[in-house]
């Protein structure tokens, strides 16, 4: 990747100073809007003739300069169809290559856009004098498929939209403002904003900036909200929400305003009561004021993400609101709200300069959020949070792909990825989530390197310069607002000024390359020398591993205290020595000082009498991204668990003790669970580990089941310990432990690998005696975990079926399973009468029913889950039902159910559900690329997924990239094996003068490995052949549009009467077929002719319309005391058996063996062919030159020549670099040009 893409200022020949966005009308019934924008543009060149802006799915009526000169415009969006033309290639490398090119063709940072406006002749004098141009664009949106969401509940048609609770909001990943208004959709182009929105009198419009005034129309039926944003802001940070919101002014900070849907004011007040603390924390931490003059929070239904921050505004999901009776949701909601405020500082106020700098604002905002977690929830929670994030990043890099925070430094740093990482519209959603986590961890590592105070001073300096820049007046020839953009260069400059330290080595190691360090170590104590001999090795060959060279800290706990030792990890050095401060254990007893300074009494009978070492730790403070596998005796892990005060060390000890199922391990885990001074998450993890240890010791276990005595002692009644006390959740540690112990006990198994009957009866008694009448907190999460626990007791059924087609029946259920099923059925039906907060019990019941099905206790049937997955149910319930359907699809290998899931991804009304179903399919895929013979991997499925990727999700980049992830999971990067092999296996490229395998083929289909293709190329080539017939040429993907802008009368008002269903102004994009100069000609030998394959048929997929159901997902139903009733009753049928699924044959043709002729068999023939080829070399050159001369070339004016020459040069360079890559012969077609931004063909 080239560095010249770093700065957009040098490429765009104009600067944006100010923009007006005016929406004059919203129509909720038609889901449309109409309005205009006005951009104030300063030319930077006197020969500016074209202006490119971004706009998708909108209808543009007129473009006007200076309110008097109308301008012609051209619309072309290659992202509507990534691989254009009738292309039969189905490999992911080819798609991603086209995807990157199509995205670059409309990337504003590359001076491109979907709409190209020609500057009118009358404006040339203004351009030559470099005076500002006012460009007005009138547009409308009709039923948009992305970018803006209309939420219109289906209720009585006589009700007004405000009474229905109808509302709208904008959404999308980065660079998605183009989906709802014309703009320059780039973070590198900030400007000031004037925003005007005219809505019904009962609606409220919330947008960015300060609300200047609200003006009513003369008939008092509508009102216009006027916002002004004086701080220069980029278009991607502009948002809008319109609805009948209830408004709450924050009682502690008058600059903050909260908006919620009707009837949610009580829970809004409680959920936002702590928000002012986050503002005060950040301002005090960085010693600087909040950079904006106001802040607004809007809670909406069917949100795209749980939190979407924009300038002075964050759009949240309504599901984050909760009452004072809810415990579990509180830390989640507070963390998300605090994170959104952190992104106001870095992400909105200070934005990234280019996509290579994205890790800086993302990482800094995440780092600030982690510090708020430490302040609000304590140091233990903070340490646990860091360890959890570090583990997630490690697992992703080891299992999926390496994460490079700044891919601009190395061209091949991300070559192994199947998606481009230089733009948010092409990045995998899973990769993006892990990218943000790793960025936060790297900023934290930087804090450890240079110190917290110096890092906070650096952040203060960045904000101070940005605030000064935001108060300056725009000057086109000076980069006045440049300090509001954060880049690697500016960050390093400020950091060097503040600290004087060089961190380039640090950046090269953790930012410009991927991977985590992987250490394996052990130690031996040398009694004679009184030293600890360490052996520390790195695994550098594993996936996601990197070679670490640098300092590493070892912490050793001795009898005389805890000591840190820092070693220099070098390339070949693996052995180190630590001289002990203590002598071997003496007979006299004394207290042991710990790292915290605390002195404790220890029972040292278990340790080695000759060694003073209690335990060792590697990188205790998590100063680097690493994974450590450490070996030490079990008694050291037990000491570490009992006496180490760091929660991460305790969790590491619990994980290690699972491998030592001994009575001593059992005792240490039991003591940890009962220790009131221990962090609650450690006690929870110890309970889960004790269940696994008990299962390993089941043959020697004595006494009642593990943890039953602990639970009855803590939560049992004083008079009858077998009966649980009335719920009292005032002690949160006990509350979380009371939830965890039953789940841990449900994992216990006896020698027959089934759950002990005592445990099942114990859990059923918890259901029976649960009493929450005197508890001030809701028990919905506790009851949900009881359902999870009773589901965990289910083990595979042992049943003999006597006839074909017979399945499990009620009579085949064991008495315990009957009780379990009755309890689950009672709970799920009770939820319909008395629904709880977020329907947590229903979610757990659906998972339990699916487990009963999977284990063979009840018939496997998808009808119940299908009914709960319908639109109108609460989002968590729907996702739980879809989770069960995904598992059903995998177990039963049901292609129809897989098609239903893909229907949801395509057609569901909730974008959050679409993405959620995709994530479920990725987590538990019905089949993978290793399952070559799966009956579901059909040609029809390939075509459907390809269509969805290629053109079906053009208005939702996150969904498109998610489907690409699914395609990769199913088929990998190469061509799916279920597709028939094309007739032309070997083709001859006359331009490169070599034969090659057909680009659409995967290597596995011809028995070759991708890594060894160059070494084995001679053995797979056929005998040289004559080339008489041309390969079919494909239409060029860089199609030019023949669109002429139609004008609307200038005096016509901007009202909905102007919107017509069929507008002649709608662009018609026609693909222009060009003759490819590189023609491929082959003539296969008679022995090598493949049999004809049937043409690929398009999938016949019937899309089901969503059912017309009452919307139970209303915001009113979110409270735990809601009484809304779902429209159906649950009945679990256990009498009928499910018929066995018929295995359908795969529609893909079986791979055919391709006969190969060896060139060594007939050297004389090969020599003659080579000689003949050399003889005709001049003839081929002449033919190509002749064809090139016959091509029709369009007339180009002088203003366009330089641009065309530049585009052609860049295309030639790209083509040469692509042909040099050894994978291109399999991933790209030589007959296809990559999509590029078109020039003016017809105006």
UniProtKB/TrEMBL annotation:
Residues 276-510 form the Peptidase M1 membrane alanine aminopeptidase domain. GO terms for cellular component: transcription factor TFIID complex. Keywords: Nucleus, Transcription, Transcription regulation. It holds the Pfam family TPR_TAF2_C. Residues 514-633 form the Transcription initiation factor TFIID subunit 2 Ig-like domain. It is found in: Nucleus. One of its GO terms (molecular function) is metallopeptidase activity. Residues 1057-1078, 1187-1225 have a biased composition (Basic and acidic residues). Residues 1033-1243 are annotated as: Disordered. The keyword Transcription regulation applies. Residues 634-997 form the Transcription initiation factor TFIID subunit 2 TPR repeats domain. Residues 1165-1186 have a biased composition (Basic residues). One of its GO terms (biological process) is RNA polymerase II preinitiation complex assembly. Belongs to the TAF2 family. This is Transcription initiation factor TFIID subunit 2. It comes from Lingula anatina.
